[in-house]
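About this split. The held-out portion is used to measure sequence recovery: a designer receives only the structure tokens and must propose an amino acid at every position. Recovery is the fraction of positions where the proposal matches the reference. Here is one held-out target exactly as it appears in the evaluation file.
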């Protein structure tokens, strides 16, 4: 059996698979987020305890030994650790918005664009560059006390294996300091962000594999691999490796990714190029800030339960009787396929005649338009796979196929954990049938008439978005 560990933003999961990729069992535990005034942080000890808990629960139910384990998790943010991988302070989440003024300044003075042209990374407030610069100005003692500024899964990997030094993998290192051509940190970018004196905090980039210690969540001697982080891991788990093919992750974060062998650092600076384990192969990623989190907010506000969504989507027609939603709910604005730290969500066309069904459909349509925008910017030309929590709603998948105007290869289950196992197998030289591991659960085809309607609505969405971005800049 094979185990994949996925340390998500709001949920930590461990899943077991057999040789053919069939998911046998999964254990999950929620973890909290502390939100206050644009600051979003996580308790590292809570996160690590959740990892041990799900591994213990899963192991207690497995009928046999674990041959191999792979680790993935949320990317970005800043996880300051000491030499043993223990926290120096709370982790600053990728959702954190405290550094938005730095990003605004770098947008204005050209630093933002220069960094993108060198690394293919469009910075946003919750990525390590702005957060480290903010901490250097406001909490220098925390940086003084840290051995390294790592990412979520790096902290977990070090503690599971007892390694003496923090490391990271090439995918997590992609934002924002890594030169995608050399696969090494760009010291000029470090200098531009005013962090040369903190250069030693950047964890060495390696191909980390190690065995687990007896005292922690996996059996002693279990082969464990660290990375890639959740976006590229989902791409592996969904079988998205051929240039032009894409993946849409409908989760807390709405992410569009397209596999590519071409590095184009021209055009509007947005998203990032994620380096993969294969040199010369990248994922052009457009990870928007809010996906299912936008729908969750609307459901909570209207008092609608998740299990009611499919029925409500059937109660109102495409266009939601004129109700429109720009789904930019994140406190740090948007980061893909454009960067606008001050952008906020907008709800228009509402009247006393509007229903909850109208609000729900308009939100799902708005998220769909944002997804189409991301995938277009990422260069999608081939097939499209879809994964994430949103796939549990058949009606939403049909709506997405219509909005995107293309068939969806729906891949259900723990796709990130599945990709983590496939990455671990490749690193250890274990041969697995990747075709059977990544076979889609279903294919959802668009309705031609609705697809034509939504193609026109998408252009209207772009016009309303342009106006909203202009208002955000003025404010």
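Reference sequence for scoring:
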């Amino acid at each position: 059996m094979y185990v994949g560990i996925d340390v998500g933003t709001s949920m930590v999961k461990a899943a077991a698979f057999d040789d053919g990729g069939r998911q046998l069992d999964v254990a999950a535990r929620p973890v909290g987020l502390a939100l206050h005034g644009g600051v979003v942080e996580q308790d590292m000890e809570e996160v690590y305890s959740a990892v041990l808990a799900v591994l213990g629960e899963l192991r207690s139910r497995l009928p046999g030994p674990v041959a191999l384990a792979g680790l993935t998790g949320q990317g970005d943010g800043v996880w300051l650790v000491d030499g043993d991988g223990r926290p120096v302070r709370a982790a600053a989440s990728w959702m954190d918005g405290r550094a938005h003024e730095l990003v605004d300044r770098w947008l204005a003075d050209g630093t933002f664009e220069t960094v993108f042209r060198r690394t293919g990374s469009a910075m946003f407030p919750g990525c390590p560059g702005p957060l480290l610069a903010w901490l250097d100005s406001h909490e220098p003692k925390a940086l003084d006390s840290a051995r390294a500024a790592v990412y979520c899964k790096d902290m977990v990997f070090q503690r599971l294996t007892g390694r003496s030094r923090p490391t990271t993998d090439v995918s997590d290192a992609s934002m924002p300091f890594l030169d995608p051509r050399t696969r090494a940190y760009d010291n000029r970018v470090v200098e531009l962000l005013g962090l040369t004196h903190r250069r030693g905090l950047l964890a060495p980039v390696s191909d980390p594999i190690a065995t687990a210690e007896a005292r922690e969540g996996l059996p002693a001697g279990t082969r464990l691999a660290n990375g890639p982080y959740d976006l590229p891991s989902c791409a592996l788990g969904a079988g998205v490796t051929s240039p032009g093919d894409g993946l849409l992750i409908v989760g807390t974060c709405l992410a569009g990714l397209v596999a590519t062998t071409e590095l184009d650092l021209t055009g509007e600076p947005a998203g990032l190029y994620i380096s993969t384990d294969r040199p010369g192969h990248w994922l052009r990623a457009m990870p928007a800030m809010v996906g299912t989190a936008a729908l969750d907010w609307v459901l909570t506000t209207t008092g609608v339960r998740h299990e009611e969504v499919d029925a409500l989507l059937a109660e109102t027609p495409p266009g939601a009787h004129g109700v429109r939603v720009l789904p930019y709910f994140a406190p740090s604005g948007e980061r893909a396929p454009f960067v606008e730290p001050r952008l906020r969500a907008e709800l228009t066309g509402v009247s006393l005649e509007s229903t909850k069904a109208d609000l729900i459909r308009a939100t799902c349509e708005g998220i769909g338009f944002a997804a189409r925008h991301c995938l277009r910017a990422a260069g999608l030309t081939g097939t499209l796979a879809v994964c994430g929590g949103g796939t549990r709603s058949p009606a939403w998948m049909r709506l997405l196929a219509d909005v995107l105007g293309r068939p969806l290869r729906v891949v259900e289950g723990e796709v990130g954990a599945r990709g983590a196992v496939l990455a671990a197998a490749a690193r250890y030289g274990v041969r697995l049938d990747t075709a059977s591991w990544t076979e889609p659960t279903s294919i959802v085809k668009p309705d031609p008439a609705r697809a034509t309607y939504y193609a026109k609505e998408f252009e209207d969405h772009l016009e309303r978005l342009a106006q909203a971005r202009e208002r955000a800049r003025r404010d």
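Annotator remark: The domain at 2-231 is CATH 3.30.420.40 (Nucleotidyltransferase; domain 5).
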